[in-house]
Amino acid sequence: MNRAADIALGGAGLVVAAPFVALAALAIKLEDRGPILYRQLRVGKDGVDFEVLKLRTMVVGAEKIGAGFAVDKGDSRITRIGRFLRRSSIDELPQLWNVVRGDMGVIGPRPTLRYQVERYDARQRRRLEIRPGLTGWAQIHGRASLPWEDRIELDVWYVEHRSPLLDLKILLRTPLALFGGTYKGATGGWKNQA
User: Fold this and answer.
1) What is the per-residue pLDDT across 95-133, written as a single tens digit (0 to 9) for each?
2) 8 Å CB contact between 58 and 92
3) N or C: lower Cβ tally within 10 Å for the chain?
4) How far apart are the C-alpha atoms of 144 and 112, rounded to whole Å?
């Protein structure tokens, strides 16, 4: 997807998402009075760090307790409202601002942490050739239900095969992925579909 399309979709998305973000922000603030936004350094295109924005879904300081940056299903650090925000992906809506700013695109590999990137082999580093995205090939094939190596491989496959038609396919399948359409066993069902 080209930059103009990213700006148009990101800007329109911000307008549509504003009421949902406002309601979520109020719920976060009422639950524990902590900050609404969570900011975290992630690795973007060409290995450049940027600050990703999310609605806060965990207790304040969560990365310093428990499993650190790792988050498992049912993690006790996730707040009550955070469980809903994560399940619905509403927590990701502030990343539309990252899209408008140019840190991210609408479609691409999800941005990862520096320590994860440092473990990439040469082939896996190919996922840094394009901007990270809100949604992508790995997201429509299982999201977090997939083993890490499989997600990376799907992202590299996307980098090698991206096209406007493939981007359209990802956009059309993303709502199903968000609302339960891709969690199909240990591999998310992708090995039979890709």
Assistant:
1) 999 999 999 999 999 999 999 999 999 999 999 999 999
2) no
3) C
4) 13
